[in-house]
């Protein structure tokens, strides 16, 4: 009798185990067990997301962010760039402006200021504000299961003042005539950049370079990350990055983003650079200070200064712009949609910054705890739709073998009209970058899909009028 009961229990257990396993497989049908190595193919149709862990959630932790990775997948995100994960120096910790926390007498007031992410006290440690190493590794694993790569924000130009190197290896740092370590200096003026919470590293020191590469390697081996975003990359010697890329690629293929607009960095070290110039042009057109001609001039310029396999990161906001230059509501109060769509339609890779997807309308505090909204609205849906198109239509390929870009003349300085093509895939972007209705005459593009409106459109030598800041993405 006991054997019969035991057998029954075993059968019931197996039944429910199988049922549970089947449900799990169904629930996670879109997950993968192992992500493919970084490759040029991945870069062609990727959207990159900048994760500000501190401000992403009320808790400001890795775990709180990790729960939302499937939401990022909805937006077509293929790469997550995590802002610096390392501990922040306590010595000369920034509070606000040029003020240090040590200058604040009130203890409660002093505790509010968490310092700059970019004043690192230990390259091989985790900021306890965000959680543990295991929490971060789980973030990376979860991203990989969702087909998303993870790169870490790295600060190679300087460290915080309580980094171990300051006392153990003062020769790793730039020193003045008195032998004192100094903060980073603007070579054009000879004056401080104002980053007084940091100590400038000396790249003439070969031992420092070796240790830096060793610390970079640690994160590939320990946390299985997929690359780095290099802070102020233009202030670090190009040959260091070339050596670092060669050494790191021996561990695994990596993706490298330079916070710079410097073509020689892209030759052998970086895959992608910031499209700063385009971003500033967007702001100026938005305010009526420039016309589409500025964008045309920019596209002609990069066609001659960049190599075929160089990638620009296109953006309407990021952590610096949001905190210091203004929100999209401030800079693009009535026209952020057209500029957002342009970052997806033009050659390159579009960026989404934490909170942008939820139409963030306030400047996030830089040195203090803050948070972003989490209500999905029309702008979220727009990013979702643009992300899907970027991921699936080769005409928007923007990586090492980008789809072609052909400007179509309209004889109207307020209208931008261009074609992207890859093989049989063709896409037309048209936009009115002005406060007045504008008409494009004699369009002869045939039958197409108006992608955003999701309706068919036929243009056989017809005129089309675009309302202020209206745009269309037409696909075949």
TrEMBL record:
Record Pfam families: Alpha-amylase
Keyword Hydrolase, does the record have it?
yes
Indicate the segments forming the Glycosyl hydrolase family 13 catalytic domain, all copies. Answer: 37-390
Q: Is-annotated flag, keyword Hydrolase?
A: yes
What UniProt keywords apply to this chain's record, in alphabetical order? Hydrolase
Question: Under which name does UniProt file this protein?
Answer: Alpha-amylase family glycosyl hydrolase
InterPro entries tied to this protein:
GH (IPR017853), GH13_cat_dom (IPR006047), Glyco_hydro_b (IPR013780)
* One GO MF term attached to the UniProt entry: hydrolase activity
Q: Which species expresses this protein natively?
A: Mariniflexile jejuense
Gene3D superfamilies per record: Glycosidases (3.20.20.80), Golgi alpha-mannosidase II (2.60.40.1180)
